[in-house]
Amino acid sequence: MGGLSANTDLLRKILVGFVKDEVHKVGVQKAVLGLSGGIDSALVVFIAAEALGPENVHAICMPYKSSNPESETHARLVAQACGVNFSVVPITPMVDSYFDMFPEANNMRRGNKMARERMTILFDHSALLSALVLGTSNKTELLLGYGTLYGDMASALNPIGDLYKSQVWQLSEAMGVPKEVIEKNPSADLWAGQTDEEELGFSYRQVDELLYRMVDQRKITEELLAEGLEVDFVDDIYKKVQNSHFKRRLPVIAKVSNRTIDRDFRYSRDWGK
Amino acid sequence: MTGISVTLAQLKPKLGCVAENLVLIEERIKKAAADKVDLIVFPELAVTGYFLKDLVPEVALRIDSSEITHLKELSRQISIAIGLVEVTDDYRFYNTALYLEDGEIRHLHRKVYLPTYGLFDEQRYLARGERFRAFDTKFGRMGLLICEDMWHLSSSYILAMDGASILICLSSSPGRGIEGEILGSARAWQQLTSTTAMFLNCRVLYCNRVGYEDGVNFWGGSEYIAPSGESVIRGKILEEDSVRATLDEGALRRERIFFPMLRDENLFVTMQELRRIESKRGQ
């Protein structure tokens, strides 16, 4: 087994400590997050419950009318399993009233709008509850750009952004995320019957193996091919990582002064914390 | 001399908060002094936190500052090794470790090897130290190292050749590598400190901080390694701790009798060959 195999006890300790430390140091006790019914948000809510106490964690399920009803059932199951606060805020009225003005909108526009609608609900609850918004994007999605900028990619803290999907599965099992959620086919649930792997055209296990070698181990193409990976797959994934890089960066600022934010005005976010 | 009693103060500094950190530090010093500890060791940049970036000039202390004067005063009760940012008269900023004893600065070490790769960016913000010197204390001859310094074999070698039998390493080591039995960086450091102690027949005191800065964890695991390379005591991983060790002079004596590698080390051969290599590189 390669480097994708994680020591889950250690990982759990680091990530629980991360949420606890980074939430408390800003003077806040609570966290809020969207619970989709999928494995990534389920894992994050388990981590947050252990870090902050389940009473300090608010999970919100935000279904659209086309969402699979099973998703809400699973979200509820996960919230019950770890004992956090749970509520449902449907996004159908807001999303539909917008697209009444743009009825020709395709699935991508609709999916992005839904993701951003959910983001505004989470950040509103951040203010309402004095809670930090936890992100639930994993490293595989972040590297592939398989997420909506300022939508599901937006958060204050992300405990699992350095974990590949394969590692999310491992840690979820170790932390007791319900089996139904671990075993089901990953889906963004933007439209009926959608699955991530069908949309992406490869399996998470395949792409994690490649990304781990390409990104973490910095292997060059010749090495990857010698290890049996297909040249088209390697090229395709490299381009995906490159073309989605803008999603992983702050907006670009035109430099005119001597100290430009993030270029030569550099401070950690935990400045004074 | 019988045992030297040491506390490794595995604390969690707040980033850029000098006054608050000094309060935490003073609490630890007073507690250790009350417990009749001889020496308390703090991590690298314990006074300031680690990922300072543009904060470096704001948190830097002059050697004659009131803060350092106060720490010197505290060293009348207990010897102190501590890390901070130092600013000199010519406005250079150093990642510095002080050894304070009986109200005086017994030694000042400026980090020589400033890591500037991967997640590290020290050389962008800090000036580089240019010496490794052992120094005498009332507990014997010692050497100070700051984190990355120890990853260069020559640093510990020089200090041992200069007579140090205790190497103190102040560290802010970020934790990474989650595939093994223990954290990757902890494993690497444990191998390094153990091997260094064994090769040089020295005691190693390693003090690493804990806490998180911008998602980066510092893993702790401060430890005392005997001259045999054996880890005598090790602090908690990823949690604050206060590690109490007793350095047994007898263990050093026995180790140096059984394995007199340091006695047999041929400084003449080493220098001759290093000079040859140096002159060849200069050509």
From TrEMBL, chain A:
Keyword Transit peptide set for record: no
Keyword DNA-binding among record annotations: no
Keyword vocabulary terms for this entry: ATP-binding, Ligase, Magnesium, Metal-binding, NAD, Nucleotide-binding
Domain NAD/GMP synthase stretches: 15-251
Catalytic reactions on record: deamido-NAD(+) + NH4(+) + ATP = AMP + diphosphate + NAD(+) + H(+)
Molecular-function GO terms, alphabetical: ATP binding; glutaminase activity; metal ion binding; NAD+ synthase (glutamine-hydrolyzing) activity; NAD+ synthase activity
Pathway field: Cofactor biosynthesis; NAD(+) biosynthesis; NAD(+) from deamido-NAD(+) (ammonia route): step 1/1
Binding residue positions for Mg(2+): 40, 141
Pfam families xref list: NAD_synthase (PF02540)
GO annotation, biological process: NAD+ biosynthetic process
Residues bound to ATP: 34-41, 136, 165, 187
Residues involved in deamido-NAD(+) binding: 116
GO CC annotation terms, alphabetical: cytoplasm
Record CDD domains: NAD_synthase
Record-linked PANTHER family: GLUTAMINE-DEPENDENT NAD(+) SYNTHETASE, NH 3 /GLUTAMINE-DEPENDENT NAD + SYNTHETASE
NCBIfam families listed in its UniProt record: nadE, PRK13980.1
Family from the record: Belongs to the NAD synthetase family.
HAMAP family, per the entry: NadE_ammonia_dep (MF_00193)
Name recorded for this polypeptide: NH(3)-dependent NAD(+) synthetase
Gene designation per UniProt: nadE
Automatic annotation (TrEMBL), chain B:
Record flagged with keyword Hydrolase: yes
Keywords linked to the UniProt accession: Hydrolase
SUPFAM superfamilies on file: Carbon-nitrogen hydrolase
Residue stretches making up the CN hydrolase domain: 4-249
GO MF entries: N-carbamoylputrescine amidase activity
GO annotation (BP), single: putrescine biosynthetic process from arginine
Gene3D superfamilies for the chain: Carbon-nitrogen hydrolase
Keyword match Manganese: no
TM segment ranges: none
InterPro entries: Aliph_Amidase/BUP (IPR050345), C-N_Hydrolase (IPR003010), C-N_Hydrolase_sf (IPR036526)
Stored PANTHER family: BETA-UREIDOPROPIONASE, NITRILASE C965.09-RELATED
Name of the molecule in the record: Predicted amidohydrolase
Organism: Trichlorobacter thiogenes
Highest classification ranks of the organism: Bacteria, Pseudomonadati, Thermodesulfobacteriota, Desulfuromonadia, Geobacterales
